[in-house]
Amino acid sequence: MHNTLSNQRIDGHLDLAYLAMQGIDLESPSPDPARFGVNFPALQAGTCKIVFATLFTEMGCNEAWGYTNVDDVETAARAARLQLRLYQGLESRGVIRIVRTQSDLMNWQSPGPIRVVILMEGADPIESPERAKWWFDQGVRMVGLTWAKGSRYAGGNAAPGPLTAAGKKMIQALDHVGMIHDLSHLSDESCAQVITLAKSPIVASHSNCRGLVPGNERHLTDETIRAIAARKGVCGLNLYGKFLANDRIASMDDVVRHIKHVREVGGAECIALGSDFDGGFTPNDCPVGAQRPEDLPTIESALTQAGLSAHEIAGFRSENWLRVLRASLTNI
User: 186-224 burial, b if ≥16 CB within 10 A, otherwise e?
Assistant: First the structure.
């Protein structure tokens, strides 16, 4: 049984391996909390018991997580495997528990290691549709076909375009093995095609509302929010200030505004968290009161003051992500 009103939280998007590759010690408190807020002690302080942690690779980047271009398949795959091994190493030492099946969600609120759902942010590391099963067998449970710059499978929010022929085959392969589809970072054209073609659950792990911050394909249209809701998915709230308000410093009011907008368009079962804390920005780039994992209770207090019910806030806190996981993960 699970307690709907538990204070244990789920965060749908954190770039943990990316942070570790920058030399950040995830197992110790941050020595510079103004620049880096995410680590396991901080997540425990914020009672984040399940987090979606990425395999993030970046095209045109010379860092350990980078690869040259869409044809540089092996480098992209190597970068993602390096991050995969990092998570597997943390699990072997008992620091985390990777969520692979429904049984890994049992007693998730109990004391013990943080549970991690592995999310691939940009699918260029998947060498071909036939290799989707290998990545699934390694523990990956959610895939977004592209990061901002586009991939050989899909257009991105900074590189508009449709799905490629390989992208359409990849959707079928991801469906076949049971991956969740992540719409965050897709171009509008590719996003619409994924919604049409994909059979498995769809979510946006870390995206906000274009109706409130217009002019950027990074954010979700109301039409996309409704499509996610119709498939019983969720929209994970991104706490980067520039994704919450245009041309001004974002506030907690903006955080509440985006959550309420998703609720109005897609229903309360669609609201969730995908903070992206430290994912290329610092705690100081987030709204005051919503800058790091320890601040998450403050968001829920603001939602209470804004009139959301305890049941709706429990959905945002954990229950809506749990529903998606229970619907998509196998029993074995």
Answer: bbbebbbbbbeebebbbbbbbbbbbbbbeeebbbbbeeb
